[in-house]
Amino acid sequence: MAIEDDVLVVGGGLAGATAALAAAREDVRVRIVSATQSTLRQASGLIDVLGYPPDGAGTEDPIVDPFDAIADLPTGHPYERVGADAVRDALEFFDRVAGDAYAGSHTDVNALVPTYAGRVKPTARYPAATAAGLASDPRDTLLVGFDTIPDFDAPLAAGHLEAAGVPFAVRGVTVSFPGIERDDAKVTRYAHLLDRNEPVWRGGSETGSRAALASVVEDRLAGESRVGFPAILGDDHATAVRTDLEAALDVDVFEVPMGPPSLPGLRLEDLLYGALEDAGVRVTTGVPVVDYESARGGADDRTGADSDRIGHVVVDRNGAAVPHRADQYVLATGGLVGTGIESDREQVTEPVFDCHVAHPDDRYDWFVDDVFGDQPYARFGVDVDRDLRPLEAGGGLEFSNLRAAGSVLSGYDFAAEKSGSGVSLATGYVAGTRAAAEVTS
After folding, report:
1. How far apart are CA 184 and CA 270, in angstroms?
2. What is the pTM of this model?
3. Domain C-terminal end among 198, 232, 256
4. Which domain of life does the protein's organism represent (predicted)?
């Protein structure tokens, strides 16, 4: 007996979660099945829409208004497929889900957020914990790193920011984090210590970890009006941690986005999965889709001919083959990094539904020798129509009841463009909305 749903989303990252939330608004039965945990915990937590042009021109200067630039994107880019209005609608949808946890909704202009490497990243939405650290803010800044977190070299990051020409004076210092002496501590250990305000020894007496951290930093301040820390300032009670530090130091406090594993990414995952639970979306992880059955029926809008429909999929649940049947499906399994697109020495494939992935026959044409050049493989993925339905090599529909979203799509280089989260949001929103509309029509 198959498990029945109206919309089944394969993949639980940003695109998959957004698709499920968008579909659930229409009072249909929605389920997510995912082979692995969400990749959100590896992400920065920033929502980038379009930071740089896709042709590589002018890469020294970030795009100011991504919506102005969307109109000039090439045919086949995911934003060109869905349109600028859908990108805007998806961001507004995210704003409603995120509430006051994220900032940036007041403007179409990209914000410039300093990162742990001392670079400045153009992004459309950013955690509230990051807001006081924007590079457009002229206030003098102290960056604080810890000797037990070697990934964030605060003096080096400060030097890079100065070299980038930020409009403020910036210093970096490295201190000892009170209560942690080992450099193999996970980021969650720092966050939980501050969340619970655990007692630590400082100056020969026991005090709360927040006050102890403030005391360490206070000794290093030299008139700066804001202080940036690596993104470890609490998890469940991050706002309270930041508020207490600000009160003790009498400065604004902000977090600098870090590399994986990312606490802001974990917070975003918690936010989205809490929203999924509230919306009644069923989520099952650790269950890869290993097979599917198709059935005839459904018109191919391009040719007028019948096209296949996905009848049901089969997931592997602890070695048992369990069928799942839905009216509509969304493929949101990620790209080459997320194993939604796979490759070997001979070919590039989409492993779940065997959708067509266009690529040169000669694998030496998959890349260029310049490691920083425009790499063809970065754009490999599933080609889709304007309804986000995957297309065969000849241009017909793969399946009439399947849509694709996120980095499984072809036609863009999310790393070079700084567009990954925005594409996942926009295409996930459109895919979920249209899948639900098919169910209810």
Report:
1. 24
2. 0.93
3. 256
4. Archaea
What are residue 390's DSSP bridge partners?
384
Which pair of tokens denotes residue 104? Answer: 């940036």
Neighbours of 287 (CB within 10 A): 17
How many Å apart are CA 174 and CA 13, to the nearest integer?
A: 34
Q: Is the pLDDT assigned to residue 255 strictly greater than 50?
A: yes
Residue 391 pLDDT greater than 60, yes or no:
yes
Type of residue at 416: A
- Separation CA 109–CA 68 (nearest Å): 10
Residue with tokens 């955690």, as numbered in its chain: 127
Question: What value, to the nearest 5°, has the Cα angle with vertex 412 and ends 409 and 414?
Answer: 95
Per DSSP, the three-state class of 187 is: helix
- Cα–Cα distance measured from residue 315 to residue 10, given in angstroms and rounded to the nearest whole number: 10
Number of structural domains, the chain?
2
State which residues form the domain around 21: 3-100+267-440
CB-based contact 16:408 (threshold 8 Å): no
Q: Are 145 and 160 in contact (CB under 8 A)?
A: no
308 has which bridge partners? 296
In a domain, 108, yes or no: no
User: Does the pLDDT of residue 260 top 50, yes or no?
Assistant: yes
The closest of 346, 417, 341, 339 to 55, measured between CA atoms, is 417
Distance from C-alpha of 59 to C-alpha of 385, rounded to nearest angstrom: 29
Residues 148 and 28 in one domain: no
**pLDDT interval class at 306 (50, 70, 90):** low
Please report whether residue 78 resides in a domain.
yes
d(CA 51, CA 49): 7
Is residue 187 domain-shared with residue 274, that is, in the same domain? no
